[in-house]
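Field notebook, page 77. I keep forgetting to write these up properly, so this time I am using the form the group agreed on. The chain and the ligand, FE2/S2 (inorganic) cluster, are recorded exactly as supplied. Prediction of the bound pose follows.
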Amino acid sequence: MDLSCLMRPRKICLCKCVSRADVTEAVAGGADTFRKLIEKTHATTGCGTCYQEMYAAFREEKEKAACQLTGQIGLKF
Ligand code: FES
C-alpha cells in the first residue's frame, strides 16, 4: 500500500492553505509571473512568512514547465 496517498499535502502557505500541488496547478493554468500566482492562490497575502518558500516553489515549477516545453533537462548548479 502506498502510504503517501493517505497523507495530506504539506502546505507552503498555512494562512491561505496553499500547497505545492496548488502552485503546480496554478503554473500549469497560466500563472507565468509570481504576481499571477498570488492572484490565483492568494498565497503570501496573510502573514507573509511563506514568501521566500512560495517564490522558490514558483520558480521551480516554472523551470519544470519550461523544460517540458523545450525538452531540456533542468539542471541545478
Ligand atoms: S503562511 Fe503564507 S501568508 Fe501566512
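OBSERVATIONS:
- Strands lie at 11-13, 18-19.
- The pocket of FE2/S2 (inorganic) cluster is lined by residues 13-16, 43-44, 46-50 (CB under 6 Å).
FOLLOW-UP: compare against the apo run.
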